Amino acid sequence: MEKYFKPSVFFLSLIPFLIIIYKIFFNQLGPEPVKEITHHTGEWTLIFICLTLAMSPLKRLTNLGVWIKFRRMLGLFVFFYATIHLLTYVGIDYRFDWAPIFNDVVKKKIYFYWIFSLVIINSFSYYIIAENDEIIKT
Amino acid sequence: MKGQRYPVLQWPYKEGLRIDEAMHPLTTVVTGLYNKKLPNQNGAPLRIFLPWKYGFKSAKAIVKIKLVEKMPTSSWMRASPREYGFYSNVNPNVDHPRWSQATERVIGNDIFAPRVETLMFNGYGDEVANLYSGMDLKKYF
């Protein structure tokens, strides 16, 4: 039974991605499709951050070690959705036109915080990929 | 109205225009939409619309119009004077404090369509620029 847990969580975590792919291909995004993709991937990034952070407290509350198995995978889904979110903004919305992007990040604090958090998510996920299971023992 | 239960703005909604702006031939009092009667959610029975202030000033469901001597404070100005001024003209040269307003996506275009440059006065400069001649529109945004 337990061996199906991880694959199930993996496929469940892919559902938001499949939803947005479906909506793109079947033209279900409404009048502002780029905004929809940006918001969808951004919201799911935040949801997966919450899910990832919930695993350790759940382990402590329930005394079940099984939660920790999901933590790294959920963390990598944070990275996955954050990357699509960033690529939507840079690639689809601004078509890799760096001048306005750079301008927004430098001049508007809110974009600075946003890019900063995405960079942190990225570096953490590289760390998680690079390290082996030792760091999730805690 | 349901939205008015939340104190995001001071209700009832207040909006202001200069008399020459309100009398401009491009200023429209809207009573319909796509050849049909204006639906409630779009601001029935009367809504005001100024194409060079697109997205702003289009007060819905107007119940009272007052002629006043002093410049009124609109609901949005009261809520955040840093972000919203009295004029609210479409102006790509003035940034919103939190984002640039230099470019826009055209509504209805697909995901591969590029952003386009936002035009001064939403492209109605020939008709309305003379209303603001000599004014610093960075100060009076």
Task: Explain the overall architecture.
- The complex is a heterodimer of chains A (138) and B (141).
- Helices cover 80% and strands 0% of the residues of chain A.
- Chain A has 138 residues and is an all-alpha fold.
- Chain A has one domain.
- In chain A, helix 1 packs parallel to helix 3 and helix 3 crosses helix 5.
- Chain A is globular.
- The two termini of chain A are 25 Å apart.
- The mean pLDDT of chain A is 86.
- With 141 residues, chain B is mostly loops.
- Chain B is 9% helix and 10% strand.
- Chain B is built from 3 helices and 6 strands; from the N terminus they run H-E-E-E-E-H-E-E-H.
- The two termini of chain B are 30 Å apart.
- The interface between A and B is medium-sized, with 21 and 15 residues.
Gap from first CA to last CA of chain A: 25 Å
N to C succession of SSEs of chain A = HHHHH
Mean pLDDT of chain A: 86
- Strand order in the sheet with the most strands of chain B: 1-4
Range of helix content of chain B: under 10%
Q: How would the blueprint of this fold be written?
A:
The complex is a heterodimer of chains A (138) and B (141).
Chain A lengths: L4 H21 L7 H30 L3 H28 L4 H10 L1 H22 L8
Helix pairs in contact in A: 1-2, 1-3, 2-3, 3-5, 4-5
Chain B lengths: L18 H4 L5 E3 L1 E2 L2 E2 L9 E3 L25 H5 L23 E2 L11 E2 L7 H4 L13
Antiparallel strand pairs in B: 1-4, 2-3, 5-6
Relevant terms:
heterodimer; A: 138 residues; mainly alpha; 5 helices; 80% helix; B: 141 residues; little secondary structure; two-stranded antiparallel ribbon; two-stranded antiparallel sheet; 3 helices; 10% strand
Summarize the structure in short:
Helix content of chain A is about 80%, strand content about 0%. Chain A is mainly α and about 140 residues long.
